[in-house]
């Protein structure tokens, strides 16, 4: 029996017990007045109120996991730490029905040509397990990050060293794939100066409570930023963020950029439609624009988790060709990302129907009715 199946069989009975334990809690939570629950969850629509009770329970459980469980287990022997993380992922698969349904619908809408119904269920289960394991990755970056570095095989680091030796810095381009933030911070922990460009979730997700924001900053963001050369570059304006990223590259530093986030409404006029996962996605080609302006190479960067859930491989590609215009070069980068996503769809954070709709890969969902 494989290691993966051993973990699943060992966790199966525990998951059913945990679900039975949480059932009375769910019943009690459902008895709270909707107005009180709406205040804590930040909901604003009837559709969200309908899913509210389940959502509150899941958010409480997730906060408990990040704030209590992960700090306690992260530095235990890796098989035990990631085994518990898989158990929590199994539990969330059972509890978070709305997320589970959104993932299954998204996988059916975009990956139905390569995933059977049974495979889509397996990918959905793995999605929850991977997210739980990624929380352990982040905590193991505390200090010098050696607890995580021991579990990651780095391939292609010579491309980073060559870029820095040339004095032009480099752009490490990835997607919301696997432990994408831990991946960049791990490179910083290895001694390379790196800065990230991207929106901090607590700044763009307005319905998070104060407690959720606090948990994010203390138990997720803090271990990560310790290994960054500069503060995270917030893309408040395309020109401003591009200037800051170009400045870092010109100082012979590394810049980590993700090419697949949904485009905000204010930036849509600058976005382009590109072929992606069998559809037309609306994305910003800023990565290759900065690279062409600064002369910095673009290195595609992905971290894949092995079947034992604890070991990972960090892959850094040779420089991507920047021939042609910025959009042509961007499409080359996107093709590399699509190949990685098709090989490991559970690693991709945007395989749910809502994210896919924002990207333009699924039809737009109707706006919920306002209360």
Question: What is this entry, summarized?
Answer:
The chain is α/β, with parallel strands linked by helices. It is 56% helix and 12% strand. The chain is built from 16 helices and 8 strands.
Name some characteristics of this structure.
alpha/beta, Glycerol-3-phosphate (1)-acyltransferase, two-stranded antiparallel ribbon, six-stranded mixed beta sheet, 371 residues
How is this structure best described in words?
The protein is α/β, with parallel strands linked by helices and 371 residues long. It has a domain at 146-359: Glycerol-3-phosphate (1)-acyltransferase. The chain has helices at 3-30, 34-41, 46-50, 52-73, 78-95, 97-111, 117-139, 146-149, 157-165, 180-189, 201-204, 210-225, 238-250, 286-294, 326-343, 353-359; strands at residues 152-155, 170-174, 194-197, 254-258, 272-276, 279-283, 298-305, 312-319. Strands 1-8-7-2-4-3 form a 6-stranded mixed beta sheet, with helices on both faces. Strands 5-6 form a two-stranded antiparallel ribbon. A hairpin with a 2-residue loop joins strand 5 and strand 6 (279-283). It is globular.
């Amino acid at each position: 029996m494989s290691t993966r199946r051993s973990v699943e069989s060992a966790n199966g009975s525990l998951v059913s017990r945990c679900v039975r334990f949480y059932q009375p809690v769910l019943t009690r939570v459902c008895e709270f007045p909707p107005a009180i629950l709406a205040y804590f969850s930040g909901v604003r629509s009837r559709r969200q109120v309908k899913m509210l009770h389940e959502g509150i329970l899941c958010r409480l459980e997730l906060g408990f996991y990040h704030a209590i469980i992960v700090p306690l287990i992260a530095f235990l022997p890796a098989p035990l730490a990631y085994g518990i993380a898989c158990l929590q992922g199994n539990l969330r698969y059972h509890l978070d029905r709305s997320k589970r349904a959104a993932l299954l619908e998204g996988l059916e809408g975009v990956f139905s040509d390569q995933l059977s119904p049974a495979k889509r269920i397996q990918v959905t289960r793995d999605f929850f397990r991977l997210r739980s394991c990624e929380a352990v990755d982040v905590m193991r970056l505390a200090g010098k990050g050696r607890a995580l570095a021991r579990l990651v095989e780095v391939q292609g680091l010579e491309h980073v060293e060559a870029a820095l030796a040339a004095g032009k810095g480099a752009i490490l381009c990835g997607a919301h794939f696997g432990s994408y933030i831990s991946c960049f911070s791990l490179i910083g922990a290895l001694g390379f100066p790196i800065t990230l460009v991207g929106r901090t979730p607590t700044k763009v997700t307005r319905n998070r409570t104060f407690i959720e924001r606090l948990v994010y900053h203390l138990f997720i963001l803090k271990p990560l930023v310790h290994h960054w050369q500069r503060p995270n570059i917030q893309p408040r304006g395309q020109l401003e963020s591009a200037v800051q990223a170009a400045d870092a590259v010109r100082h012979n530093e590394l810049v980590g950029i993700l090419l697949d986030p949904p485009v905000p409404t204010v930036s849509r006029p600058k976005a382009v439609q590109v072929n992606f996962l069998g559809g037309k996605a609306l994305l910003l080609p800023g990565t290759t624009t900065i690279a062409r302006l600064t002369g910095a190479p673009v290195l595609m960067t992905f971290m894949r988790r092995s079947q034992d859930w604890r070991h990972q491989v960090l892959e850094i590609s040779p420089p991507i060709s920047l021939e042609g215009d910025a959009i042509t070069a961007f499409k080359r980068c996107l093709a590399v990302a699509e190949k990685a996503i098709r090989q490991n769809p559970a690693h991709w954070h945007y395989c749910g129907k809502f994210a896919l709709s924002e990207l333009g890969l699924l039809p737009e969902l109707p706006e919920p009715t306002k209360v």
